[in-house]
Amino acid sequence: MRLTMHKPCPLFQALNLVGDKWSLLLLRDLLGGARRYSEFCQQENIPSNILAARLKRLLNEGIIDKQPYQQQPVRYQYRLTRKGADLLPAMQSLATWAMQYTDSSTPPDSFFQLQPMSLETGDG
User: Fold this and answer.
1) What is the per-residue pLDDT across 57-73, written as a single tens digit (0 to 9) for each?
2) Contacts of 92 (CB under 8 A, 6+ apart)
């Protein structure tokens, strides 16, 4: 039986926003304390053009925000917004699933102890 929906599927919508590997890894790094462009480059070995594009998309979607930490030249640090922090339970569930069904490492216990409301966010 085929379902007919008037609105796009919520999973489809979520994957459009954060479903590529680089976006999820950037969110994971933000959860782990990374804040600056250089930290993301070092931790993920992500090509600069891809990093810039993913940060821009996450900013435009309201998942992260940025604040200047240096004026000349202007450089920014990034933080999760409430919208971004609310992705934590989905990321924890995905990590739990991967640990059960793939040959992956185990995240630190602190990752599973995080709660969305305990995260420092850029929302006021």
Assistant:
1) 999 999 999 999 999 99
2) 111, 112, 114
